[in-house]
Amino acid sequence: MNICVVGAGVVGLTTALELQREMRNANVTILSDRFEQDTCSDVAAGLFRPGTSFSGPTEEITRKWISDAYSHWDELRRTEHSARAGVCQMSGYIFSSRDPAIVRNHYIEKVLPVYRAATEQELTICPGEWKYGSFFTTILAECRLFQPWATERFLDNGGRIVTVALNNLQELRGKYDVVVNCTGLGAKRLCNDHKLVPIRGQVIKVRASWVKTAFYADFDTYVIPGFEGVTLGGCRNFDSYNTDVSRHDSAAIRERCESLLPSLKGAPVLRESVGLRPHRDPVRVELELLPTANGSVRVVHNYGHGGYGVTTAPGTAKHAVKLVKEALQTNSKL
């Protein structure tokens, strides 16, 4: 059977690899017009920490996605591929002077190996009047390393990659038994999905090898070390399509991050990046029979992860592959 995955960001790649793992007789093809450093995933810091607003169709499904995703990343961390795939364990703090709810996370407090309240002494690690804090140990998956590794693995497994810009999913009818739509923000046009909203993010990558711990604080401030530099962020501009680096955002990010971690002052900039997070509530992972003039196309959607694509991709990929199997068992006349 022939299956295609549309989209080559972290969601598309993890879905394609899961298809190969679960359906060994299937021929899997990735179709995309953007790869690796041209994807939104490349901008992400990649720390496993889904936001408390992240939402699937039900609470139970959302929790399963997150639990499955963590297990996947943690298993990969324990293999010989971890360094090349950009996956490692990392600990961090989240501080707030505003609200104790900011430092809690009902999704991951029981999933991560460690998630506890910060001690009084720990609240003084960073400058600021911090009243609330948490310490946690989680996983980092750096997409600048993971995406090339995943692409190579996909090709080694017999997968095909085709560079193409699609006008609609209906044009794939008759070419594939099932189409898996992992187009992120592209689904806004391809599916005419008005629930999809871009949330603009901007980050600065700096060279600061002495930073080994992640830090989060109020006003979307974060410092996340990685394999290739330290990510300073950030911002969340709702419904913004601006992909240009803003010097005002850069100045604000540096000011907030250097206030949180003064040792960052003077850290050389490696690059500045902007990404448009594909936000949808709920994230869409569902089967659709898409009508065309000559029948239907079986489409499994897997998009709308917002800023939590790296975090949750392996979990939604498992769900999507289950739906692909169901789609192949349908007796619908196509």
Automatic annotation (TrEMBL):
Residues binding FAD, per UniProt: 33-34, 45-47, 183, 306-311
One Gene Ontology biological process: D-amino acid catabolic process
Q: Which Pfam families does the entry link to?
A: DAO
Keyword Oxidoreductase among UniProt keywords: yes
Record GO terms (molecular function): D-amino-acid oxidase activity; FAD binding
Superkingdom field: Eukaryota
Cofactors needed by this protein, per the record, are: FAD
Which keywords annotate this record?
A: FAD, Flavoprotein, Oxidoreductase
Tell me the InterPro entries matching this sequence: D-amino_acid_oxidase_CS, DAO, FAD-dep_OxRdtase
UniProt-annotated binding residues for D-dopa: 222, 277, 307
Any idea where the FAD dependent oxidoreductase domain is? Answer: 3-322
Mind telling me which PROSITE patterns this protein's record contains? DAO (PS00677)
- Mention any one GO cellular component term assigned to this protein in its UniProt record: cytoplasm
PANTHER family for this protein = D-AMINO ACID OXIDASE, RE49860P
Q: Which family does it belong to?
A: Belongs to the DAMOX/DASOX family.
User: Would you tell me the protein name for this molecule?
Assistant: FAD dependent oxidoreductase domain-containing protein
Q: Organism source for this protein?
A: Anopheles arabiensis
